[in-house]
C-alpha cells in the first residue's frame, strides 16, 4: 500500500487551503520542485483516490440536505448503494452496520411537485429496502467547507497564510444572518464543470461552459468571495492512518445541543458534526487509528451527561464521497 510522506501530506493540506493554487506556488511553499509536486499529485490521484472537487454551499444551492438511513437485505445492499451513488442528487453514500444499512445524503428541492420524489416515492418502492428513516440536516458544525483535521495538519500557519495571500484566495463573504446568494443557471454550468476536477484550467472551463476564460476566472472569484461554493479534497483515509470509521448517532438534550455540537466540532477524531431532525438529533463521523482508539474516544471524550444516547455504526464501505464515486 502507498505510504504517504511529509511532501504528500503537505500537498494534500495545500490543496485544502486553496484547491486551485498553482503547482508552482505549492512547490515553492513546500520547498520542492514543480515537477516533483505534479508527479506526486498524479500518484496520489491514481493510488490514493485523491480528488479535488467544487461544491455549492447549501445556502446558495437552493436545496435541502437529508441524511437518509436505509435498511436492506445483505444480498441487495451493495446494488442499492451503488445505484444511489450514481445519482447526481446524492453524496456521501456509505454502507454501515454489518452491511445491512446504507447511509446517504440526498439533496432535494425545497418545494415543487417532485421536490421529494426520491424520498417519498423512489426509495420506498425499491425492492430489498425494509426500512427508511430520513433526517433533515439543520446545521453543519464540522464538515463541508471545514476540513477534517487529519488531512490539514502538515502546514504551519505561516505557510497556509502564504498560500492564501500569493494565490489570491478570496475571503468568503456572508453569514447566516445575511441573505444567501442563489446560484444562477450560468453559475450551475460552471460548477458542473468543476464537480469532477476543481483544478481544471480556465481554458478548459471556458470550453466546457461556452464563456471566455476571463469571464470564467472572474465569475469563479466572485462565487468564492460570496461563499457560494467551496472546495473539498477527498483522499483515502486509510493512507492517513485511519483504520476504523464510524457514524455516531447521538441524542442530546435540546438545551445543550449547540454547546455539545460546538465542542465536538473541535475534536480531531471527527470529520462531521451536524444537527438533524429525528430521535437522534446530532450525528458525527469518527475517524480513528484503530478500534481501541474509537473505544477511548467514546468512553473518555463524549461521555457527557447531556449526551443521553449514542448509537455507533461502523462504516464498512464508502461508495461516494462528496461528489466522486469510489471504485466499485
What is shown here, in short?
The protein has 328 residues and is α+β, with helices and mostly antiparallel strands. Helices cover 36% and strands 27% of the residues. It has helices at 6-17, 23-30, 34-47, 58-61, 74-85, 117-122, 157-167, 185-194, 202-209, 213-226, 257-264, 291-301, and strands spanning 51-56, 64-72, 90-96, 101-108, 129-142, 229-234, 244-252, 270-276, 282-288, 307-320.
Description:
The protein has 328 residues and is an alpha+beta fold. Helix content is 36%, strand content 27%. It contains 12 helices and 10 strands. The strands form 2 sheets. The chain has an 8-stranded antiparallel β-barrel with strand order 2-4-3-10-7-9-8-5. A hairpin with a 4-residue loop joins β3 and β4. The longest helix has 14 residues. The radius of gyration is 20 Å and the shape is globular. The model has no long low-confidence stretch (mean pLDDT 90).
**Main beta sheet:** 8 strands, antiparallel, barrel
**So how many helices?**
12
Could you tell me the radius of gyration in angstroms?
20 Å
**Lateral arrangement of strands in the main beta sheet:** 2-4-3-10-7-9-8-5
Helix content: 25-40%
Number of strands: 10
The proportion of strand residues reads 25-35%
* End-to-end C-alpha gap: 18 Å
Please state the average pLDDT score: 90
Shape: globular
Order of helices and strands: HHHEHEHEEHEHHHHEEHEEHE
